[in-house]
Amino acid sequence: MTIESNPVWARISGFLYFIVIGTGIFTFMYVPGQIIVPDDAGATIASIRSQEFLYRSGIAALLLNQIAFFFLPLALYVLLSPTNPKIAQVMVLAALTGIPLGLVSAIERMMVLNLLTDGVVVAPAAIADFVAVFRAGANWAVAFAGTFWGLWLLPFGYLVFRSGFLPRVLGLLLMAGCFGYLINLFGVILVPGYTKMTVASIMSLPASLGEIGIGLWLLLIGARPRGGQMQPAGQGAQ
What we know:
There is one protein chain. The chain is mostly helical. The chain has a domain at 3-147 and 214-224. The chain is 78% helix and 0% strand. It has nine helices and no strands. The chain has helices spanning 7-35, 41-50, 52-80, 85-97, 99-117, 124-151, 153-162, 168-190, 198-221. The protein is elongated and about 60 Å long. The model is unreliable at 1-5 and 228-238 (pLDDT under 50).
């Protein structure tokens, strides 16, 4: 399979990547920023009730995020498997393994919504506790999904680095992003208040730069051979 035969898969991969990135920013950053009131469960509950459509939109965006993330590694497999088929298979397996945890998070978020808006019979004094438990479950499901959202970047980054038609620097950033994800996950587990530390933001940078960068490159530039000469996509595996 040559680079000439594969430009459509580069564009498809880039398009799917930006669905993943866009919906991820919306559901994991924008919606919580608008709705969640830190350290005030009562105000958070009132905010969810008053911004119900936004909260529902966040759940819908999370589902769309996971659907796009299901198809993304499959498209990348077609694009990158000529470089090294076995490593491409590992990439797909690692990516898809995290999807069930993402769906668990969506279920937990929906349970919060049902508790607050659908007349579920719960003692009023216990509502805040139930909401807190479901929200914690949703957050931890996302955190542990980060294990696989990180792990898939290692084979993905290697394939990008060795492909011959994608920038090596993006491959390096993606591989570094794998370790950043894992460091942050273990940091959250082992160190109270870790997410508020500067190191957490630093560790997230390589993955952010690498994923946004590769998404833009695939969408706007596609599969362009280094040095301006066309070559077999599988050359990097030789």
